Amino acid sequence: MLLMTGISKKYKNGSVALKNIDLHICPGEFVFLVGPSGAGKSTFIKMLFKEVVPNCGKIFVDGVDVLALSDKEVPFLRRQLGIIFQDYRLLPDRTVYENVAFAMQVIESPPVKTRKRVLTVLELVGLKNRANAYPTELSGGEQQRIAIARAIVNDPILVIADEPTGNLDPETSRDIMRIFTSINESGTTIVMATHDKDIVDAMGKRVIAIEKGEIVRDDAKGVYGYES
Ligand code: ADP
User: Where in the numbering of this chain does the ABC transporter domain appear (predicted)?
Assistant: First the structure.
C-alpha cells in the first residue's frame, strides 16, 4: 500500500526533516507515527499527498509513483486519499451534509449516489441527525467526526490523519478512535501521526517512532514510548 525507499528531506533553510527513510506499509494496516516535536512526522505525512517533495528517494502509494506525478495529476492522487487534520478544516458556510457531499461533487458523483453515500457515512460517524447543522454549531468532537465522514465518503485507498485527536478531550478522543477502528476493520489502511499516549497504548497497533528524521522504532504491537 505504501512503500518508501531512501527518502530524505532537507528544507531550503537547511532544516533536515527526514533522513534515508525506508518503509513498507501493507494494505489494511493501522499505523501510528510517533515522536517528539520537530521529529519529522508532519513532513512524512505531507509527502504522502505530495504537499512536500523529498530531495531524494521514492514513494509509491498503492503502486503509484507519487514523485513522478505532474502537478495536474496530484489532485487525482489526493482524491483517492482521506486526509484528516487536527483542526478539522470544514467549510464554515456549508452544512454538515454539504461539507461531506462536496467531496463527492468534486469527483462528479451522480446526485442520487451522493445522497445515499453521504447519509451512510454520516450514520457511521453518528451524525445523521445533525446533517443540517453548520460546523460552528457543533462540538470539536462532532466537527472531527464530520471531517472523518468527508475523508472516507469516496472510499479512499488510504486514510492519513495528522493529530486527529489533538484538540479533543480523552473521552471524545476514544469515540473518535472507535470510528477509526471500524474504518480500519472494513479494510482501509490508516496512517496516523499522534501525541496521544493513552490511545496508542490502548490500541496495540503498529507503532513507528521517528526521532531527528530517522525511524528509531517499528513495532508490530507497539506503545507510545514517550512521557505524555
Ligand atoms: P513534527 O511533525 O514531528 O513536529 P516536522 O515535520 O514539522 O516535525 O518538522 C521536522 C523538521 O523540519 C523541524 O526541524 C522543523 O523545524 C523543520 N520544518 C518543518 N517544516 C518546515 C518548513 N516548511 N520549512 C523549513 N523547515 C521546516
Answer: 2-227
